[in-house]
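User: Histidinol dehydrogenase, Herbinix hemicellulosilytica:
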Amino acid sequence: MRIIELNESSRKKILENLLKRSPHQYETYNETVAQIINDVRSNGDEALFLYTKKFDKVDINADNIKVTDEETEYAYKQVDPKLIDIIRKAKANIEEFHIKQKQNSWIDASKEGIILGQKITPIEKVGVYVPGGKAAYPSTVLMDIIPAKVAGVKRIVMVTPPDKDGRVNPGTLVAAKEAGVTEIYKVGGAQAIAALAFGTESIPKVDKIVGPGNIYVALAKKAVYGYVSIDSIAGPSEILVLADETANPRYVAADLLSQAEHDELASSILITTSRNLADKVLEEIENFLKTLSRSDIIKKSLANYGYILIAKNMNEAIEATNEIASEHLEIMTKDPYSDMTKIKNAGAIFIGEYSCEPLGDYMAGPNHTLPTNGTARFFSPLSVDDFVKKSSIISYNKDALEKIYKDIETFALSEGLSAHANSVSVRFNN
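Assistant: Predicted structure for Histidinol dehydrogenase:
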């Protein structure tokens, strides 16, 4: 991890370096992903089973691709009861937060004979992709399924790659059952995304696909967008800590490392107005690396995408923070709530030294599926809104339309659309 003076040049170079992590930069994989998608689209289960054998080294067929009730019951016996209780606590917090996001249909009627409104309808079928193997995250299962359930989605189809024995991670199964999944299939990778997008003999076609995955999954979601909706094309995890001289260097270091351990492409950035804090944070990082289990991954992550940026003042620090638009933003300053009001771009904002990022990952309630790679400038966290459609409602009686039909007719003719004009005028011209 390097300490750099924040200026126009350094900021530009860092942004360029961070953008290299985007799935959009890995075009060399596009041909492979396209081939897998086309094969599954054309050949259904046959292709699905062949790719599962090739990539996951396990024989999956029409008889065992779907997770059974017995497998789920067995998973409950394998998971520590304490963890099951914690999963249930997290579920309750996530549900409580997302219930507040629900919108209701509405209608406004006027005395002039005009009715306008909006109808909220849940998406009927949603696919949830859950990584398997070493990257098994029951917390993400809760975050992706619960908003869909709260929104009223009737069919929630989960896909996740099996292990070499043809089983699904027990924690993943427990979390999915607790969250309210409808059905689970043992398939992963680009082939799973293709199956959800187009349907096979075993897996139903869905209307929207959500959930994180590796580069093949990300590019597959990008490729099927338009045939189905997707949540986003997620990139590697990232954290930015905004701090001044009042911050605890031990806490700052620990929080930077919490994201660096995800993988070598993860980004951890400290922007501070205090050189003294920067030096102390580096010392704390070195101490933590002696004991953390994933220190090898952390070291590579920090070497590639770890930065400590020294700003001249807090305004400059906040400006850079907004430009980077990090997935996770922690604010550890003397007046964090005031500084928070100046933040325009961030996936999730953690305020104060006891609001560490893992709080949001596991237990607080807000969704931890967040925009990455600077997309917080225009994307939002996964929410109930992602699982509903909105239809406009318009109703005019004759008197109401008669008052404005000439305006509509004129507008339509100005655009050269005479049939539009006729559609209105025909109701009043004998």
